[in-house]
Amino acid sequence: MPASPVELVEVGPRDGLQNEARTLPVGTRVELITRLLALGVRRLEAVSFVRPDRVPQMAGAEEVMAQVPRRDDVTYIGLVLNRRGAERAALTACTEVNVVVPVTDAFAERNQGASTAALVEQAAGAVGVAREAGMSVTVTLAVAFGCPFTGAVPLERVREVTDRVLDLGLDELAFADTVGVGTPDQVAALAGLVRGDARVPALRWHFHNTRNTGYANAWAAATQRRDAGQRLALDASLGGFGGCPFAPAATGNIATEDLAYLLRHGGVAASGPERLDLAAADASARWLAEQVGTPVTAQLGRAGDAPDPVERAVRA
């Protein structure tokens, strides 16, 4: 049975904005989401239910969700850190929560004020709330590729935390290269941790391009061997905006338009959007750059698209 297409998950409205110095008003954030839907995005992280004093760029999550277009074909994800965040998300148009658990205690303490073990317990509470509300659940393991405070993360440590969170019962597990230190061999090693594990119906990856390895890592993830039935998703942000406010020097995400180009020209079937309108994407990325006051980092807006090869064997 052929593998399902790689799903592109747009994180621009959340991760794309949370590290910017300029906080956008609710109406502008809703316009960004509306523009993304017009580009063909169908699954996106729209908001983050966190403390506004810690991440002011994400304040007003409920107001944003009250104004977004309601569509049956669109999945809105709310990022949460604990039970309280999940309770807030459950009262909005979000149909999915993404619960973040850092794999190192050093990052967990700085990012969320508790140890990794404590955050796994908090994640259990968030999962319970989400299930009761009929919401899908992803758990993202932050700094799975490396920690800005402790350096390299042993694979065994990731294995240990992965096993704990999978026992919570998830719809999707995500590995995040929060600070952009990862390389393709790490992608293969992490994928190997969960290959054949029935507790992982879907595997998702979150890459930053801090050291120009983000796209190589995305390619490694997209072309890895998958078990039949295991879905695969890749996060990306329009224009390449983004970063973690609690990770020093964490620059932007891989760009949605550049990733879509890589997969299409590499013969990898992708969904959401299946074929991005480059001109429209570039226009929206430039619009967003004006709003946040920082430049677009995506390359396709500068270089332009290229003709598809005459013949291409689809990989997935």
TrEMBL record:
Signal peptide: none
Keywords: Lyase, Metal-binding
A Pfam family: HMGL-like
Protein's name in the database: Hydroxymethylglutaryl-CoA lyase
Keyword check for Lyase: yes
Similarity field: Belongs to the HMG-CoA lyase family.
GO molecular function: hydroxymethylglutaryl-CoA lyase activity; metal ion binding
Domain Pyruvate carboxyltransferase: 6-279
One GO term (biological process): L-leucine catabolic process
Record CDD domains: DRE_TIM_HMGL
Phosphoprotein as UniProt keyword: no
